[in-house]
Amino acid sequence: MNLRTAATGFVAFLLSVPALQGNDDWAFTYPSSNICALRGSTVEIRCNYKYPKGHAVEKIQWFTNKHDEPVDLKDDTDYTGRVEYSFPEHRCRYYSCTGTCTLRIRGLTLSDSAEYKFRITTNHGGAYSGLPGVKLSVTDLQVKVVIPPSSPNRVQLECHSMCHPAGYDGYIWYRDGTQRHQGRFTWFNINSEYRTSCAVQGSEHLPSPSVYAPETPSVGWTPPGVIKEGSSVNLTCTSEANPVAKYTWSKVTTGHPPGHSVQGQQLSFHPIQSSDSGQYLCTAENELGTETSSSFSIDVKYAPKTPSVSVRPPGEIKEGGSVTLSCSSDANPAADYTWFREHGGSVEELGENYTISNITTELGGNYYCEARNAVGLQNSTLMFLNVTATSSSSVTTITVVRGTVAVLLATILLLIFLWMRRKTASRKAGGQGGRPDTREESPPCPVYDNVSALTNRSASAAQREPIEEQDDPHYASIHISRSKNQEVPRGFAGALVESDHTEQVLYSAINLKRPKAVPDKLMSDTTIK
Questions:
Q1: Does the pTM of the predicted model rise above 0.90?
Q2: CA dihedral 485, 489, 492, 495 (to 10 degrees)
Q3: Beta strands 296-298 and 278-286: pairing type?
Q4: pLDDT tens-digit profile of 7-17?
Q5: Domains and CATH numbers, the chain
Q6: Short-list 292, 150, 137, CA closest to 214
Q7: Which of 248, 270, 268 is CA-nearest to residue 259?
Q8: Among the listed residues 445, 447, 444, the one whose alpha carbon sits nearest the alpha carbon of residue 424
Q9: How does pLDDT run across 376-403, given as a tens digit for each residue?
């Protein structure tokens, strides 16, 4: 028995319902007022009609209650190519005419469920409809899941159809398309990978939808592309399953079980934060099993946070030392760093660390760094470098001053020495040929001059010879014999050393530019008594 025969036989047991148009001359009857059919099958809806003799039928049509006005199914786009009318010749006897009509619909869809009515139009301008019509219900075969309490790892499947009475046992079961057995029930192991379906005997070409455990879920996100902090992001989990799966989201923390779970096929972030970065799992579950997706990574990109600046070594910064400034900022992707000096612009130093070697007081002041990545940039607060001068600078300054004074003192002593020699030479010259009244008196005590560098050659020869300047230390000493109560002449500079015979010696170190031929050390002893 095919489906068409089964459907026809099934509705034949329903009561016929007359549809009268207002008087006994017009009548419409439908053998079945309710018809149930499986999706994909073909159904026939029949009617009987009667109209007064003398009328000629010009048009017949079927229509539904889907539209406000009767629309012929042949003109309805929802039924294009799927409907046929059968209108055998009618017969007239005595005062009335009778006939039959049939509507055939192929490839039924669930949307074909509606109330169908027959209508005729005669040459007298009248249009008559059979009311009420026939209600058609289109349904699927369904596999119901029954969970017995005694079998936690197995479930029972039941094949069910609204078109068959309760207890109907004419079903065939299939596993992955292969026929297994006949009956109303079958068993299914939890998390089995195969698919199970059923069909009505005689309509094996119209099996039920297969039932199966969820397949491995896939995860996607919108909008696609880079995920930036502050934007709106939606994660969607999808898994093939029948019955329809329920979804659970969880965030995975390394070394810990999944965190807080969220129900629903979609996980939304409005807005998303940097703390939302991490690994996520989606679990799909129905009565036949459970399946979890592979981990899905969310990497939220964000601009650098306010950088922090540190200095090494900490504490007081002394001139001449080395200082390293360090900049760090939380950013994704990692930030690039540039250093700046306030009111001084970029120091043209790139990198997390900036080292200043042999720092001076002029390099003190406020410094800051800029952290930048593809999302944005951020500047740090100011870091003040207070560079103090070291004590060695003061010692150097004092040393230089003392050296200058020593050179000045030696120069004075040399000038005195040269002046005294010239004066002595002048006296000698005056004693040999000068006028008595112009000759200077001899000093009260003899003066001895013992300067080896100057007595070995005459003054004129020393003037003619080329002189190569060299820096050598020269020492001059002046011996002075005086009484203990005798005062030193005013303006005399030097260091006096007491001797046993009331003789004092003045020592002075003088750096001179000397001729090349002069010996390394020039010693001059001048004794004044």
A1: no
A2: -10
A3: antiparallel
A4: 433 332 233 34
A5: 3-139 (2.60.40.10), 142-200 (no CATH), 218-301 (2.60.40.10), 308-389 (2.60.40.10), 409-428+442-528 (no CATH)
A6: 292
A7: 248
A8: 447
A9: 999 999 999 889 987 654 444 445 556 6
